[in-house]
Design a protein that fits this description.
358 residues, 14 helices, Dehydroquinate synthase-like, alpha domain, globular, two-stranded antiparallel ribbon, alpha/beta
Length: 358
């Protein structure tokens, strides 16, 4: 099966990618030396309804406990962290336990953060069930929750012990959730692998079929960047934020869940392309190829007039990508080549946001 190794010394772990792995999780945990730990599955109500039975069936009599939260971005909160920790304690879990995150990016971030603080930190395994989480958020060790002031502002680096990717879990996704995930895959192609563009364009957006090899190719991009800059102390990992500065500002300007993460990132990518043309000499035809690919997956490219530019600016200035008050913005010089620049000014960001209204 396609396997990507994330090489981080004693925090290294494999990412397994193959159809049907969900029913083999207990066996995989045994092979990875994790079967002695008592497992707690954290999922959301929707994902658990689709996949928890298949996952639990593989464990025989030694079944994990199942803990669910409401589906949606609103569950990424400190309130849910406390509720889950208390529920796990009542279920008899302790430092000899293991958390299995079954779900998309929200569940992965939330469960990973719970794992980082429960009994001062226990192991966890990621089983991502959306495109976003399979190609991006399940790998890299970033965990966290949202607060009213912005996304992911409370969290920790806590690497998983293992990531299990079963492409068949994508079949249960609604169309909108399936489409939004490709914003992250398009981002990977734009910053590191321009040859991926035709492969993405070949995917039928109306079907739920994504080759395991293509998922692994995206995961490998994320893994190599994380290996080079695990804790985002250099500019290398920041490249993964292409489209995210303005995208996060847009997403945070709306009630949680009103715009999906990938939809906001698609708008952020369009804005970043405009800034890339001005500050890094990106050719307009290169921008057009990215926009065409975003449109292929029915991702939004126009910002509603109801979302004020001033609100987006207020939200994005709280973003972690600002350093000592300076704007550190990821641009493209050409497809497959990205860099962090500090020449972007506030006026550039405002103009790019306004451009989204055309």
């Amino acid at each position: 099966m396609p396997t990507v190794q994330v090489a981080l010394g004693n925090r290294s772990y494999p990412v397994l990618v193959e159809n049907g792995l969900l029913s083999c999780v207990a066996e995989i945990l045994e092979k990875q030396g994790l079967s002695e730990l008592r497992a707690a599955i954290i999922s959301d109500e929707t994902v658990a309804g689709h996949h928890a039975e298949t996952l639990l069936a593989g464990f025989g009599n030694a079944k994990p406990t199942l803990h669910t939260v409401p589906a949606g971005e609103g569950s990424k909160s400190l309130t849910q962290v406390e509720l889950l920790c208390r529920e796990m304690i009542r279920a008899g879990h302790d430092r000899r336990s293991l958390i299995i995150a079954l779900g998309g990016g929200v569940v992965g971030d939330l469960a990973g953060f719970v794992a980082s603080v429960f009994y001062r930190g226990i192991p966890f395994v990621q089983i991502p069930t959306t495109i976003v989480s399979q190609v991006d958020s399940s790998v890299g060790g970033k965990t966290g929750v949202n607060v009213a002031e912005g996304k992911n502002l409370v969290g920790a680096f806590h690497q998983p012990k293992l990531v299990i990717v079963d492409p068949e879990t994508l079949r249960t996704l609604p169309a909108r959730e399936f489409h939004e995930g490709f914003a992250e895959a398009i981002k990977h192609a734009a910053i590191r692998d321009a040859e991926m563009f035709p492969e993405l364009l070949a995917i039928d957006p109306e079907k739920r079929e994504v080759p395991a090899e293509l998922l692994a190719r995206n995961i490998a991009i994320k893994a190599r960047v994380v290996e080079a800059d695990e804790f985002e102390t250099e500019d290398i990992r920041a490249l993964l934020n292409f489209g995210h500065t303005i995208g996060h500002g847009i997403e945070a300007s709306l009630p949680y869940g009103e715009m999906l993460h990938g939809e906001a990132i698609a708008l952020g990518i369009r804005a970043a392309l405009v800034i890339s043309e001005k500050h890094s000499g990106l050719a307009p035809e290169a921008s057009r190829s990215v926009l065409d690919l975003l449109a292929h997956f029915n991702l939004p490219l126009t910002l509603s007039e109801s979302i004020q530019t001033s609100t987006v600016m207020e939200k994005l200035t709280r973003d972690k990508k600002f350093k000592s008050g300076k704007i550190r913005f990821v641009t493209l010089s050409k497809l497959g080549e990205a860099q962090v620049v500090e020449t972007v000014q506030t006026a550039d960001l405002e103009a790019a946001i306004e451009h989204l209204r055309d």
